[in-house]
Design a protein that fits this description.
11 helices, two-stranded antiparallel ribbon, 323 residues, elongated, 62% helix, mainly alpha
């Protein structure tokens, strides 16, 4: 259908609203109007989903940069018989607040808004936007912790710490100073991932919902891949004064984290522009009940029929377990 729309547009002298409209049977194509309009709805969602790629690069810092930072902070357990906090366990703060935020939205915020006669949930675009801003805040918090960690190393000289059988030269600054950055990322991911999955469900026609949610999760995975590539690019550019060396005590991880925050800020601005330019699509309700009318427009943003409760619950469980 997409290829046919492109080919017929090049051949046609008529001016139609969308290049996909050329694939409609009424315009010389071989596809029904309803099928074309459904694909148009799905295509409209893709630019918004693509803005999440940069966010998922930030999201993957928890498994990489934050971990490297934690290994070089005071994990405790220096006294005989003392308990050492596992560096990787700091992520529990992220997943705990992530789960709590999802549950709080579902069990408290949404029902409260319904009783007040307002929309059952805040706009998905709004929740995604807030989540992006919190992601920026998390990187800034991590960068500030890194600044204080490096200052502590410079002032005290640090100490050698054994973590999982390896020796790391660490600062005396407690690893618990990382808690704010993990909490920010937890709330952020609960907003972005859950709202993103809901958006792909509500915005997509019935027959393409699985595909669109699959694309969103593909973007999530792509963010992890690009996170590694981004580190390589930064290392190549800063080779004379490394920002992200193998031993981060000798680099400038704070610069790297500020760079990520700036990149996410730029991506957030692009997101706002795309959302502003976003135009309503045909009503999901009319597609579901078989009364599709391609002259009918969906209200702006996501003021539409909500995802059914059972589907919303499934999405929340998926986001909590796989984001």
């Amino acid at each position: 259908m997409i290829w046919q729309g492109i080919v017929l547009k090049r051949r046609s002298t008529d001016k139609l609203q969308s290049w996909l409209d050329y694939a409609k049977s009424s315009n010389g194509g071989s596809y029904q109007c309803q099928a074309v309009d459904e694909v148009k709805m799905a295509v409209k969602s893709i630019p918004i989903m693509l803005t999440a790629v940069v966010y998922f690069i930030l999201f993957n810092q928890m498994q990489s940069t934050y971990l490297l930072q934690a290994e070089r902070m005071n994990l405790g357990g220096q006294e005989p018989g003392g308990f050492q906090i596992p560096a990787a366990s700091m992520q529990i703060f992220c997943w705990t607040i992530h789960s709590f935020t999802n549950a709080f939205q579902e069990l408290v915020i949404f029902p409260l808004l319904s009783r007040m006669g307002r929309r059952p949930s805040p706009g998905r675009f709004l929740r995604i936007g807030i989540g992006m801003v919190l992601g920026i805040a998390a990187q800034i918090a991590a960068a500030i912790v890194e600044i204080y960690r490096k200052e502590d190393l410079k002032e005290t000289g640090g100490f050698d710490q054994i973590v999982a059988g390896k020796v790391y030269h660490s600062a005396y600054l407690s690893v618990l100073y990382q808690v704010p950055q993990f909490l920010l990322m937890g709330v952020s991911s609960a907003l972005v991932v859950t709202a993103g999955l809901e958006y792909t469900y509500v915005q997509s026609p019935v027959v393409l919902r699985g595909l669109m949610q699959g694309i969103f999760l593909l973007i999530l995975g792509l963010g992890g891949l690009l996170a590694s590539a981004f580190v390589g690019i930064v290392q190549a550019i800063t080779v004379s004064d490394e920002w992200y060396p193998d031993e981060i005590n000798e680099g400038h991880i704070d610069y790297y984290l500020f760079l990520l925050a700036g990149l996410m800020g730029l991506d957030f601005c692009i997101y706002l522009v795309i959302v502003r330019l976003y135009k309503g699509s045909p009503s999901i309700t009319s597609i579901e009940d078989g009364s599709f009318n391609h002259t009918e427009r969906r209200p702006q943003e996501d003021e539409t029929v909500l995802m059914p409760q059972d589907k919303r619950t499934d999405v929340l469980k998926f986001a909590m377990g796989n984001s």
